[in-house]
Every structure is written in structure tokens, then in C-alpha cells.
Design a protein that fits this description.
With 386 residues, the protein is an alpha+beta fold. The chain contains 11 helices and 10 strands. The protein is 52% helix and 15% strand. The longest helix is centred in the middle third of the chain and has 37 residues. The protein is globular.
Length: 386
């Protein structure tokens, strides 16, 4: 389909596809096996100026938006979901600064992130606070000109590798979700350490670690927005970051489909390539239709956000929900098309399947996405009735 991309967007897409094919795909299996963080590829992405896509020009960025981020993430994910999320998670950690940072905070943090000199990460999830983001226990107590952070975050993508962290902590537990605040915490701050690196099913090239705060003292200037805005900052961040997760799922699905089509033309059974069998053809037809539908929804949602829409929460949730479900279905079917070979690590589709699963879970499980969508739908119906 022609999505009427601009010449600049087509150039971004082409460049990212080239990096995926030349730099990511050849090492994806080894990175999956070794769990090594892909710093060499991150450097290539930084040299191509691709960390600057979604950052304003005044802070060293290209001045693009969510669509440009999605285009890059999709192409990188065709090569490796773990590499792609290491890139996209830096955007997730940056969005709160873009949305709620002061001019001083933006000048301090965004230029280095745009250049790829520093990665960012977002710290929300805790051992007892996954889907229930309002249940976080990490605290930030104000003492004079500083805040003192105590608590643990876990399952944090880019944990230990990023230099700049946006952290959600409770400044007033008595207020529940309205007592959460957002802070920027820099790697190397005394009292800020890292726990174990998680051994994951998929996206194994990415770093997923605990963040531990023990009397971690940060300047009051590191507060994002106002006290009590942490939950709002989180939700507004997810509204613009979820299409990126959807794009990751899309790229994984596309990579699996590409591999399945190629294999179906090469695999001979009953003296014919299996691509000649109607059963396989119908599977491939469904896979590509589902992928294209996901792509249309993601691009439309990204454009809506980039146009300045303040009501993209439902569409963002739909894009993430639909694309990640498609990724799981398509990668499972790709394994089926490969048959017994699909189950073997010698072939790429089992990795696509493992990588796809997390897209149904992080940045809000798909059950949470359905709740968001339904809630928005019911509210809209109420407004229309009036």
C-alpha cells in the first residue's frame, strides 16, 4: 500500500531497512544467544542521526514525530526485536522530558539523547505494580533543595545501559495515584544502583534490569512538571509511545512473513514447492492482510498524534493491541509453515515468535488496552447522547 510518505520519511525508512539488513540481521541470532547489548549497532544508528528523529530541531533533533519513530522501529524490528526495543525504549524515556520538561531540562538532556551519546529509559514498573501502575511503592521525599528516592523498579528496558532515567515515585502516598511524581535521575548518582539482568524468553539482546534507589539524592530541579503529575505524565507518555510498540510488533511480523514466503518457495514436498499448496497460500494471504491492516492503523494513529491531537489514547491503545495480537498470530503461523524446522534455532522464525510475545505485555498488557479502549468508547457514547 502507498501510505503517501514524504520523501524524507521514505529516506528514513530506506536507511533503517539498510541498517536492519546489513548490520542487524547477520548478528541477530548471536545476540539472542549471547544476550549481549548491541552497542555496535546502537553506534551505527547514532551515526546515522536516527536518535534525533523525534526531537525538536532546537535541541539537536530532526523535528520529526511519532510516525518517523514508528518507521525506524518497524524496520529495525524486521531484523531483531531486541535491538529495536533498545532504540525505541530510549524514546520512551525521553518522551516525559519532551512533554513536561522545562526549557532548562530540555537543553540539558535532549541534545545528548538526540546525538545518541546517551540512551534514556523509563522507570515505572515495580515488583508489586505492573498493570496497576498506581500501586507503586518507590518514594521521593523532599528535603530542602533535594528529593530522596527509595525503592526498586524492575523489568526496566535499557536498565544499566541508559544514562538518563525518567522515574515515577510517590511524593504523597495518601493521595494514591495523584500522589505520584516524575523525576529525571542520572546514572552514577549516589544511591542509584542496578540489580540483576533478567534472563528473558525473547528480545534477549536488550537489557532488562532492576533499578535500585537507596537514599538517592537528586536536586529538586530534576522534578518533571509538578508534584502529583506523575500518573498523568505516565499516561500521556504511553499515549504517544504505544504506537512504537505496535511498530515493533509490526516489524517482527513482517520479518516472519518474509522468511515464511521465502521458505515456502524453497521447500519441496510431493515434488512441488509448498507455496503451490492452497493450505499454505491461504495462511500467507491471511498473514499479509493482517500485517497491512496493522500498518494502516499504526501509521494513521501516529499521524493523528503528530497533528497535535490530545485525544489519541484510544487509538494508540487499539494500534498496540491489534498489532501485537497480529504479531503473535503471524509468527506462530510462520513457525507452522516452516514445520519442524521452524521449531529449531537454526531458522529465524522461532525467535520472531519469542520476540513477538512481549509486545502483548509491556507498556500495558493487551487486557489493559482493551479496558482503555472500552472506557473511551463508553465516554464518547455518553458525550454523543448529550
Amino acid at each position: 500500500m502507498d501510505y503517501l510518505l514524504s520523501d524524507n520519511q521514505k529516506m528514513i525508512q530506506s536507511l533503517c531497512r539498510q541498517i536492519a539488513e546489513e548490520k542487524i540481521m547477520p548478528v541477530a541470532a548471536e545476540l539472542d544467544k549471547s544476550e549481549e547489548f548491541p552497542w555496535e549497532i546502537i553506534k551505527v544508528i547514532a551515526q546515522a542521526d536516527l536518535f534525533s528523529l523525534f526531537i525538536e530541531e532546537k535541541y539537536g533533533g530532526m523535528g520529526g514525530g511519532v510516525l518517523e519513530l514508528c518507521l525506524a522501529t518497524e524496520e529495525f524490528s524486521r531484523g531483531c526485536g531486541g535491538v529495536a526495543v533498545s532504540y525505541a525504549a530510549s524514546a520512551l524515556g525521553t518522551f516525559p522530558i519532551i512533554l513536561y520538561g522545562t526549557e532548562e531540562q530540555k537543553q540539558k538532556y535532549l541534545p545528548d539523547i538526540a546525538k545518541g551519546k546517551k540512551l534514556a529509559a523509563f522507570g515505572l514498573t515495580e515488583p508489586a505494580a505492573g498493570s496497576d501502575a498506581s500501586a507503586i511503592q518507590t518514594t521521593a521525599k523532599k528535603e530542602g533543595d533535594h528529593y530522596i528516592l527509595n525503592g526498586t523498579k524492575h523489568f526496566i528496558t535499557n536498565g544499566g545501559e541508559a544514562e538518563t532515567y525518567t522515574i515515577i515515585a510517590m511524593t504523597d502516598k495518601s493521595k494514591g495515584a495523584r500522589g505520584a511524581s516524575a523525576f529525571v535521575v542520572e546514572k552514577g548518582t549516589p544511591g542509584f544502583t542496578f540489580g540483576k539482568k533478567e534472563d528473558k524468553m525473547g528480545i534477549r539482546a536488550s537489557s532488562t534490569r532492576e533499578l535500585i534507589f537507596t537514599d538517592c539524592k537528586i536536586p529538586k530541579e530534576n522534578l518533571l512538571g509538578k508534584e502529583g503529575q506523575g500518573f498523568i505524565i505516565t499516561m500521556k507518555t504511553f499515549d504517544i509511545s504505544r504506537p512504537g510498540v505496535a511498530a515493533q510488533a509490526l516489524g517482527i511480523a513482517q520479518g516472519a512473513l518474509d522468511a515464511a514466503v521465502k521458505y515456502s518457495k524453497e521447500r519441496i514436498q510431493f515434488d512441488k514447492p509448498i507455496s503451490s499448496f492452497q493450505g499454505i497460500q491461504f495462511m500467507l494471504a491471511d498473514m499479509t492482510t493482517q500485517i497491512e491492516a496493522a500498518r494502516a492503523l499504526i501509521y494513521a494513529t501516529a499521524r493523528e498524534i503528530d497533528s497535535g491531537s490530545k485525544t489519541a489514547a484510544k487509538d494508540s491503545a487499539m494500534a498496540k493491541l491489534f498489532a501485537s495480537d497480529v504479531a503473535m498470530k503471524v509468527t506462530t503461523d510462520a513457525v507452522q509453515i516452516f514445520g519442524g524446522y521452524g521449531y529449531m534455532k537454526e531458522y529465524p522464525v522461532e525467535k520472531y515468535m519469542r520476540d513477538a510475545k512481549i509486545t502483548q505485555i509491556y507498556e500495558g498488557t493487551n487486557q489493559i488496552q482493551r479496558s482503555i479502549i472500552a472506557s473511551a468508547l463508553i465516554k464518547e457514547a455518553g458525550k454523543n447522547k448529550k
